[in-house]
Design brief:
86% helix; 3 helices
């Protein structure tokens, strides 16, 4: 049985995990900026916005990487 390293197949799960981590980091930065400005909506919604954008960008990146190969 071939492993993932032998096949060189990219897995969607890996892209989504990296997208979630980067998105949550960006969301925390956005929430920090919202705290400095004093806008409570940005403080609360920053994590959700970052999470959503991170997963969306990861899925798009996976689509473009696997489409060309």
């Amino acid at each position: 049985m071939q492993t993932n390293k032998d096949n060189k197949n990219r897995k969607l799960e890996n892209y989504l995990v990296y997208g979630m981590v980067c998105g949550l980091f960006g969301g925390s930065l956005l929430s920090t900026i919202g705290m400095m400005v004093g806008n409570s909506f940005i403080q609360i919604a920053g994590f959700g916005i970052g999470f959503s954008l991170g997963m969306t960008l990861a899925a798009l990146l996976y689509y473009y990487k696997t489409r060309k190969s």
